[in-house]
F-box domain-containing protein (Mycena sanguinolenta), 371 residues
Amino acid sequence: MTLISMHAIPGPGNRKNASSITQPMAESDFEITSFQNEITALESQAATELRCAAGAVPIRTLPVELFAEILVLTIRTSDSDVFDSLHIQDAFRVSHVCRYWRQIANGTPYLWTGPIQVDFSRQRDSADANGLRTWLERSAPLSVPVMITGFRHRSWLTESSSRLNEELLRVASRWRSLSMQSIHFTGQAWFVQQLAGRRLDSLEELELSTLSDGRSHLDLTTSSPFPTAPRLRKVAFDMDSGIPMPWAQLTDMTLTGKISPEGFLDIFSQCTNVVRASIIIAGWSVVLPPVPTNVLMLNHLHVLSVTWPQVEFQFLDCLSAPALDELCICIPFQSSGGSGEWKQPTFTAFQRRSPHMTKLEIDANGFFRAI
């Protein structure tokens, strides 16, 4: 007889006990593996941070020139043509982080060369003039763009405006551009007169709104400093003001106010370097002879925009622009005195003198068809 031990055959109770033991062991193994993976990831991250730390250096050990460039890169610029003060806020912000940052920021003129807007329209306290002075001093000796607004209701005669005007004129030689917008004609003419005798050595761009509406008693033809501005290249102003300009050196001109044939020929015969021009002409159909005796050569003109209140195609007879690429002709719908007839021979002859023209735009408010 064979004896069979009862311990050799696992019963239902024994199998249940074995399962209750192996399951926790498997869960423990999984947790151990997870912990090991986390430890490995943390060790890898720590090693990366150590390598970064080894390659990093304290700010104070950076070359001053490099740190200054870093500060300049933090200054925001506006994407629109509308003035905002983001760059001013940023410049003052980085200069107030700590003493070291302030020392570097105040010693970096380029950080303070963003455009500044001076508003004369309201009463201001001394803090505004002091802030303007600080900005201009920190930007020295570099040039700065200046925008002036708010000359109306004789606001330029107040004490606070006098302080602002004094600070601006003090650095007139460092203006890179001067823009005067939304300003009463008398106030603007007064400001231009304040520039008489001052050097505008850095001025490259000039934008003036209407300086005369027939009521101003200020003569700007002799007091204007602009003819002696050696770097002036771009202007936008009203021809009715009579302000003289250094025509021979200008490359970009936007002239408002109607220009007579004599005025056009006189001005543009001097503008041998003009590249872009926008003008309003009048009186050509009654003044010029049928065939102009002289053709005005503008060899560098690439873009021309012409507005005429009458259909005066004789203007094109006296002009040759061999490098012209774009031509825009604007004839207001309310214009009178013209027949509205497109003079093909005149335009064809002009095209032959401008063989490189690739873009033609005709804006006649539906009066003409585009060709």
User: Anything to note?
Assistant: The chain has a mean pLDDT of 80. The chain has three domains: 61-112, 115-240, 246-371.
